[in-house]
Amino acid sequence: MNLAEKLISSHLTAGEMRPGEEIGLRVDQALIQDATGTMVMLELEALGLDRVRTEVAAQYVDHNLLQSDERNMADHLFLRSACRRYGIWYSPPGNGVSHPTHMQHFGVPGRTLAGADSHTCAAGSLGMLAIGVGGLEVAMAMAGQPLHVTMPRIWGIRLAGALPDWVSAKDVILELLRRHGVSGGVHKIIEYHGPGLGALSAMDRHVIANMGAELGATTSVFPSDARVLEFLDAQGRAGDYVELAADPDAGYDIGDEIDLSAVEPLIAGPGSPGNVLPVRQVVGEPVHQVVVGSSANPGLRDFAVVAEMLRGRQVHPQVSLEINPTSRQVLADLIKTGALTALIESGARIHQTGCLGCIGMGQAPAVGRNSLRTFPRNFPGRSGTHDDLVWLCSPETAAAAALTGTITDPRDLDLALPAIRQPRIASAVTTPLQRPLPIAEARQVTLVKADSIGSLPELDPLPDSLTLPVLLKVGDDVSTDEILPAGARALPYRSDIAALADFAFGQLDETYPRRARAAGPHTIVGGRNYGQGSSREHAAIVPRYLGLRVVIAKSFARIHWQNLANFGVLALEFTDEAGYDRIAQGDELRLDGLRKAVETGDEIDAGGVILRHRLSARQRAMVLAGGWIPEVRHADDR
C-alpha cells in the first residue's frame, strides 16, 4: 500500500477503496475557524448534541479579527460559549492561524482530521489524513458520524534533488500549479515520496500541502519521518511521533516527478493561483504592497528569511511591507531571534497574528497597483478591492520586491544567501488555549447569542416539478469567493444569513440578490470546476435561502458539490458539455419527475438539454429531504 491507502484503510467505516465510490472515514480530530464556526455551532445546537465525540475538536478565531462594529466580538463570545458547552478547545483572537497552530499543539501522524476550512489539508505535512469539508460535515463528524468522501485516485509525486539557492517550498507547489492548473488535483490525493523529501522540513511540507487545495485535491499526504520527529520534538511532543511511510513497492494511480534542483522562482499572476509563470518573465513590474504571512507560508523560516534579506536595509519608499505573524509561537520566536527588530527597523508594518489580508479582512490593495503576497489565493476581489492585482509568490520573491519596488528575481539581488538559524526548541506559548470543560460543568453553560447571531434557514423538500428561470450563467473556475465573498464588508454578517444574502455573487453580478428575491425558485448555470476554493458553506446556504434549487454545470469542485447537497440544492451536470451553449441567462427551464430521477439516477430532460447527477444514495436522501439536517430529523421521526 501507499501511505494514503494505509491511512484510509485504517479509518474506513463504509464503502470500498475503489476510485469514484463513496467511502466513510472515522474522524479523530476536528478543526473549525470563526468564518465557518458560527454555522457549525448552530448546527450542533440544531442536532441536539450533548458533547463532541472526536478525540480533539478545536475552534480557532483567526479570520474575523477587525472589530469595526459589535458583530465580530459577538460571534467570538458565542463561539467561546459553544466551545465550553460542547467540549471543544478554544483558541482566542490573536492566538494564531488555525492550520499552523493546530500542527503545533494537536498534529499527530496517522490521525484523521476533518476541518471546516479548505486548507485543512496542510496537516498532511505531518502524515495525517486531513480533509477540508463544509461546516455541516464537521458538525456531523463531531457528533460521531463518519466523514463521507468520494474515494480519490492516489497521485504519487516523486521528489528528487534539493532546492537551489533563493528557491523555497512555495515555488514547488507553484510548479505543480503551473503544470496542472487549479483543477488538476480534483478527485485525487497527492502523496509525496522520494529522496528529495529529506531536504524539506515539516513546515516546508506544510506550505506544499496547504496549497494542494488550490489544485482541487482531496488532500495531500507526506510520510512521517525524521523531519516530522524534529518538528514534534521542537514542540515538546516527541512522544506523539509515529513513523509512517508507503510500502517500498507501493504503486500509484498516477505518477509524476519534480526535480527540486530544477525549480526556479515562480509567481502566480492576478486572478488565479493557476496563472503561474517564472518570476524572470515579469521582472520590472512596479509593486506598491507586499504582504508576508498566511497559512500558505506560516513557518518561522518564512518570516526569518524576509528579516535577514532586509536586515540593515530599508523597504523601497513606494512599498508598504506588511508582516502578519501566523501564531503567538512564531511571533515569540521572531522576537527572541531578533528577526522582528530587523523587520521593524527596515520599515515593515507588523500586524496581529491571524489571516487578515488572506481572507480580505483588511490590507486591501489600491486599485490598479500590484500587491505581492505569500498567500494561497488571489481570486478576483478576494483581497477586498474589486479590481485588484494580487500576485502569489515565495517569501524570497516578496522580500526582493519590497527592497526594489518592482517584481524582482531574488537571484538577481546583490545579496549573500541569508543564513537562517531557528531555535531547536520552539517557544512554548500554550496559556491562551482554553481547555474543554468537564462534562458536568459544560452542561451548565448557556450559549451566548447576541441579536446578530441568526439561525439556520428552514429548508423544504425537493418538489417533483420545477419551472426555473436561469438567473445567472457563469464561466469556468468560478470560486466560492465569487459566489459569496469573504472580506471585511461581508464576513461580519456570517451569522445572519438574511443580511449576508445581500452580498451573494456581488463580484459577478450585484443585481443577483434583488433578482433572486423577486424570482423565488431559480437555477444557475456554470462551467467547469464550479465552486472552487473555500469550504465556506455560506456559498451554498445563502443562494439556497434566496431560492436556488438547482445548479447546472459542466463539473463541480469537490467541497462545494457536497455543500450543495448538504443544503438541498440539486447539482446537475451536462451529459454533453455542448448543452452549456444551448442555455442562456434569462431562459426558463422546466424540470419534471425530479424526485424519481434523483432516486434512480435517471437522466433529466431540460428542454432538450440532457442532465444527470452523481449523487450517492446518502446524498440523494439529503437533496430529497431539502438538506442533511431535515433528512436527519425525518429519520429520527421514523
From TrEMBL:
Q: Which UniProt keywords apply?
A: Iron, Iron-sulfur, Lyase, Metal-binding
Which InterPro entries does the record cross-reference, listed alphabetically?
Acnase/IPM_dHydase_lsu_aba_1/3, Acoase/IPM_deHydtase_lsu_aba, Aconitase/3IPM_dehydase_swvl, Aconitase/IPM_isomerase, Aconitase_4Fe-4S_dom, Aconitase_put, AconitaseA/IPMdHydase_ssu_swvl
Q: Where is the Aconitase A/isopropylmalate dehydratase small subunit swivel domain?
A: 518-576
Q: What SUPFAM superfamilies has UniProt attached to this entry?
A: Aconitase iron-sulfur domain (SSF53732), LeuD/IlvD-like (SSF52016)
Domain Aconitase/3-isopropylmalate dehydratase large subunit alpha/beta/alpha per the UniProt entry, residue ranges: 6-284, 285-405
EC class (word): lyase
What's the EC number here?
4.2.1.3
Q: Which Pfam families match?
A: Aconitase, Aconitase_C
**Molecular functions per Gene Ontology:** aconitate hydratase activity
Residues of the signal sequence? none
Return the PANTHER family for the record: ACONITATE HYDRATASE B (PTHR43160), ACONITATE HYDRATASE, MITOCHONDRIAL (PTHR43160:SF3)
* Protein name (record): Aconitate hydratase
Origin species: Nonomuraea angiospora
